[in-house]
Structures are given as C-alpha cells and as structure tokens.
C-alpha cells in the first residue's frame, strides 16, 4: 500500500465516486421497472373508470417526471466517468509518471466498436419508454377530451416538457 497521502486521498475519491456511480446506475435501471408499473397502474385505472381522456394526462405527467429523473441520473453517471477519465486519472498518473495508465476500464470500455450503435439504440429505447407514452397520452386526450381550458393548458405544458425531455435526451447521447 502506498504511503503517499495525496495518492491515497485520490484513490479514496475514486472509490467514493464509483460507489455513487453504482448507486445511481441501480436507481436509473430500477426506474424503468417503476415506470412500467406506473404505466400499467394508470392504464388499468383509466380502463376501469371508462374512457376518461383526461386521466391519460396523468400518464403524460408520470412519463415526463420519471423520464427527467432517469435522464438526470444517467447524466450524473456519465459525469462521474468523465471526471474520472479527464481529471482524476491524470492527477493519479502525475504522481507516478512511469506507471501504467490508471483506471484503464474508464477508457477501455469506450473503445468498443459497437459502442456507438448501443448508444443510439439506448437513446431510442429511452425515447420510446418516456416520450412516446407521454405523447400518446396527450394525443388520446386531445382526441377524446374533455376540453376544459385548464386541461388543455396542462396538456400543452406537458407537450413542451416532453419535447424538451426528448431534446435533452438526444443532446446527452455521447457518441464520441
């Protein structure tokens, strides 16, 4: 074990960051199950109560809120990896310039030749999981009503939120 206090501090920071990253990955991945369960509960509620178009606005709201939570966690996961690669690894390597590169997995997994395709497919899946149901609920409401000004206003706000979520999702795709 190294006796260099700065190196130990940097390695401890790395350990804490990886622990946060693991926790966020678990939360992000479990949000998919929560989202699917929420959709099922909303659809069962709507079908049980009859054709209530306004109730599907709840689906749009849930999809948007859960989508934002998923995206925020995904961004933090990526930000931790970026920080480790660009800031932390070079600081550790500077302490021992002749040593092999540290935290090699942070770079190695990004060089997989199928990574770009996986990122595109993941972004598509995320859009299908969060944005399509949100838009579907809105369309159903607009077709079936009831058309009350407060519901129409809410539906337009949900439409904007869903488009912003989709736009942010696409901006977040790291194809590099």
Automatic annotation (TrEMBL):
It comes from the Bacteria. Keywords: Membrane, Transmembrane, Transmembrane helix. The chain crosses the membrane at residues 31-49, 55-72, 120-143, 149-167. The keyword Membrane applies. This is Uncharacterized protein. It comes from Micromonospora humidisoli.
